[in-house]
Amino acid sequence: FHLLAIEKAKEFIAEKFTEDFSLLDVARYCCVSPFHFSRIFKQITSYTPHQYLLSYRLQHAAMLINSTSLSLTEICYMSGFSRSDYFSAAFSKKYKISPSQFRQANRV
After folding, report:
1. Torsions phi, psi of 15, nearest 5?
2. Which of 99, 97, 95, 101 is nearest to 87 (CA)?
3. What is the pLDDT of residues 19-56, one digit of tens each?
4. 19: exposed, middle or buried (C-beta count within 10 Å: 0-12, 13-18, 19+)?
5. For residue 66, is pLDDT > 80?
6. Whole-number Å distance between alpha carbons of 54 and 71
7. What's the start-to-end Cα distance of the chain, in Å?
8. What CA–CA distances, in Å, run from 93 to 81, 102, 107?
9. What is d(CA 105, CA 95) in angstroms, rounded to the nearest whole number?
10. Backbone angles phi, psi at 33, to 5 degrees
């Protein structure tokens, strides 16, 4: 049952990562209490639901930076971030390089 709930949560996140939603929304979708959901998600994935969502959004942003000429601001919003400064800080923390430096480094 727990694996099924986590797989449903991952599907939910994959479908809605560009939207603003809460832990309660995901837990309801999985028919589990928010506390229990958070605990089992961390136990099974080694990530909190928030960490997983953030990682998913950052991977999407990295893919867009590499494959499009969209502005970094457009990529920020298309990846589900509501503030460009938070996006830039989170991206830099994960990839150890700013989004603009990442784009420059991956240009051929």
Report:
1. -80, -30
2. 99
3. 999 999 999 999 999 999 999 999 999 999 999 999 99
4. exposed
5. yes
6. 20
7. 47
8. 15, 12, 21
9. 12
10. -65, 150
Q: With beta carbons less than 8 A apart as the criterion, state whether 61 and 91 touch.
A: yes
**Residue 101: per-residue pLDDT:** 95
- Which tokens sit at 55? 């990682």
Q: Are 5 and 31 in contact (CB under 8 A)?
A: yes
| Structure-block tokens of residue 17 | 């990562």
| Distance, CA of 59 to CA of 79 (rounded, Å) | 9
Phi, psi (degrees; rounded to nearest 5) at 48: -75, 160
* CA 43/CA 39 separation, integer angstroms: 6
Pairwise CA distance, residues 71 & 96, whole Å? 20
